[in-house]
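explain this chain.
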Amino acid sequence: MNSKVFLVARILLGIFVLVFGANKLYPFLPAPEEMPESMMAYFTGLSTSKTLLLVGLVEVVAGISFILNKYGALMALILMSVSVCAVLFHATLAPDSIGPALALLILNVVVLFGYKDRYKDILRA
């Protein structure tokens, strides 16, 4: 992979997850005005169990990691679960707003591909 493409993808992913992770910890972005009842129930469950705070913390740490290029390969693997869950959430409960979740997943896959040399040992049969 071209090193400049990887650098841009890594920094974009870092900023993306840093902003949205910080928003989970301290909300500063406007919330959607009208959410279906199923979405509200889902977010209520995540909020009361403090899972949303944990996801926000993971996103902030991953964002800082990608921006500083420290432990990025590990954070890309950890963040993949968040990316897949975001896409599945939007695909099932809010398909009209799936764009940012798909962008997160695509950036995460590009960054994983950029770190592919770091995964050779754990993927060896």
User: Anything to note?
Assistant: The chain has a mean pLDDT of 91. The longest helix spans residues 3-25.
